[in-house]
Every structure is written in C-alpha cells, then in structure tokens.
Amino acid sequence: MRVLITGASDGIGGAAAIRIAEAAGQAGGTARMVLSTSGRKPAPQAVLDRLAELGAEVHFLPADLTDVDACRALARQTLALLGGLDCFVSNAGALGGAPLKDIAPEKWDFLFDVNVRPTLVIAQELHGALAESRGSIVATSSMTGEMPMPGAGAYSPAKAALSMLIRQMAQEWGPEGIRANAVAPGMIRTGLTEAAYSNDDTHSARAALVPLRRIGTADDMGAIIAFLAGPQSAYVTGQIIVADGGVTDAMLGLIPAPPKK
C-alpha cells in the first residue's frame, strides 16, 4: 500500500498512518508512506517510531499547503519516492471560529485555502497514478460540514465544500477506477482540540450529549480512514461517513417534551 497522508501529526493523520500500516502487515504486505505536516511543529516522533516497529517505509516531507506550488511539489515528490500511489489521505486542516458579521475576508480565504483547496490541487497531480492503481482518496471533513455551527466562521462552510468536492470527485473520477470518500468526525480529542477537553467539566458536559457517552479518539477516526483506504471498501465511493457517536442524530431528542397529564 503506497499512501500519502497530509496533516500527519500525532492526531487523526498519525492514527490513520498506523492503522493503514497495521492493515498492510496483516495482509502480508508493507506500507510505503509519505507523511506531511505544515512544518510548524516537530515531526511526530511517536508516530514515526510506531511505523518503524510495523516495518513501514516512511518519508517525512513538510509542506505549506496554503501554497499551490507546494501542494503540487508534494504530490510530485510523493510519486517520485513511491513510484506510484494507492491512496491519498487528505487530513490537513485548520480551525478558526469567528462570527460571520465580523469575519475578515482574509481569514475566510485562509480556512478555504487550508481545508478545501489542497485536496483538489494534490489530487489533480495524483490523478494519473490513482487511475493506474485504481486507488482511493480519503478526506477528513467534519460533522460541522454537515450541519451549521454558529460561531464557526468559515470552518463549517469550508468543510461542507470539502464534502461536496469529494462527492463530485467520486462521480467524475469513478469511471477511471478512483474512489473518493470522507470521514466527518464529531467531537474528537486530539492535540488540536485539547484546550476544550483538558477541562473536566467541559469534557463531561460534551460527552453527556453523545449517545455513546464518550468523546471520540484519533484512533477511532484512523480506523475508519484505513477502512476507506483499503480493499474492504472497494465498492464504496462518494460517501461522507459521519463518525460522531450519534450526536447529530440526537438533536431532536434534546427538545423538551410537554409535561405529562
């Protein structure tokens, strides 16, 4: 399995890398990977160490994905290193809440530049290789791309755009054998969201809203990405899998019932 994973930190991207490497080993193969982050943080050493234990071949290439040329260069370097590609996991993203009446156009553009555009630009460069391998694209969207979240600024619209991009890719590129799917995480505890969940009261209050009564983990999402990346999902395309413990479907249950007579 030859894979490119963006946003491959110690959160969802790193968990996906580990799950994919485990699946490759269980199938009697070896994962060959290019992992990429923005370069603003150190390389995810714990992830790299675990991948080494699993026998994966790993190349780490930092890239600023807000730069179109850097996106294209990352894709070309990946193909040169791996000699082709079986899966592109587009996990890089950024948060940035703001009321819509106040949000600056520059901040709006930045969140689309990080959360949407790299998936398209990189996938365009990888298209030929993915068609040759009949490979797949897996993106990380968000439950906030499936339903509005007041105060999220451009984040919800950007993730909604990403989900639609994946669905459109599935339709346009399906005849060439390329599958495209996304996972839409709900409330997940990662380094990016640690500020919220490090507070015990906030953590408990949020978990109480989830029918499964817990906050999700990076590994929960990594397992879904590995499934969508691999042969077990060979007939699945154009799907946005909302992995939120059931919370979005629980909203109507929060409406107070009338008093019993």
Characterise the protein shown here.
There is one protein chain. The protein is of the alpha/beta class and 261 residues long. It has a single domain (2-188, 218-246), classed as NAD(P)-binding Rossmann-like Domain (Rossmann fold, 3-Layer(aba) Sandwich), CATH 3.40.50. The protein has 9 helices and 9 strands. The strands form 2 sheets. A 7-stranded parallel sheet has the order 3-2-1-4-5-6-9, with helices on both faces. β1, α1 (12-26) and β2 (32-36) form a beta-alpha-beta unit. α3 packs parallel to α5. The longest helix has 19 residues, at 155-173.
Considering the protein shown, what is the CATH homologous superfamily?
A: NAD(P)-binding Rossmann-like Domain
* Quaternary structure classification: single chain
Arrangement of strands in the largest sheet: 3-2-1-4-5-6-9
Distance between the termini: 62 Å
Task: Tell me the total number of β-strands.
Answer: 9
Strand content: 5-15%
Helix content: 40-55%
Rg of Cα set: 19 Å
Major β-sheet annotation: 7 strands, parallel
How confident is the prediction overall: mean pLDDT? 93
In CATH terms, what is the architecture?
A: 3-Layer(aba) Sandwich
DSSP helical segment count: 9
Which H/E pattern describes the elements?
EHEHEHEHHEHEEHHEHE
Which structural category fits the helices and strands? alpha/beta
Low-confidence spans: none
Count of the separate structural domains:
1
Q: Indicate the overall shape.
A: globular
